[in-house]
Design a protein that fits this description.
about 110 residues; mainly alpha; about 70% helix
Length: about 110
Amino acid sequence: MANPIDEHKARLLEERDHLLQQIERLREDVKVELEFEADEGDPELPEREKNLALLATFEERLEEMELAIEKLKDGDYGICKNCGQPIDPERLLIVPEAQYCVPCKTKLERRGRR
C-alpha cells in the first residue's frame, strides 16, 4: 500500500510543474502583448487584462503549493493553519495545496466578503 504522504507529495510536485508551465506560457503571452503599444480602445486590452489576472492567480497558487511542499518536509502537511485539526483527505485530493479545513476556509471567505 502506498504511503499517503508520498502520494500527496507526488501530486503536489506534478501540479506545481504543470502550474510552472502555465505561468511561463502566460508570461510569454503577456510579454509579447506588452511589446505593442496599447492605443485607446485597443481590442487586445481585455485579453491582456485577463492574462495578467490569470497570471497573478497562478503565481498565488504556486506560492501555496511551495508552502504545502515545505509543510510536507516539516511533517505539518494536512493540518489546518487556523484550527490545527487535520484537513479532510478528500479535500487534499482535490486541493493538494489546501492550508485550511473546509469549515475554516468557509469562515475566512465569509469574512473576506464583508
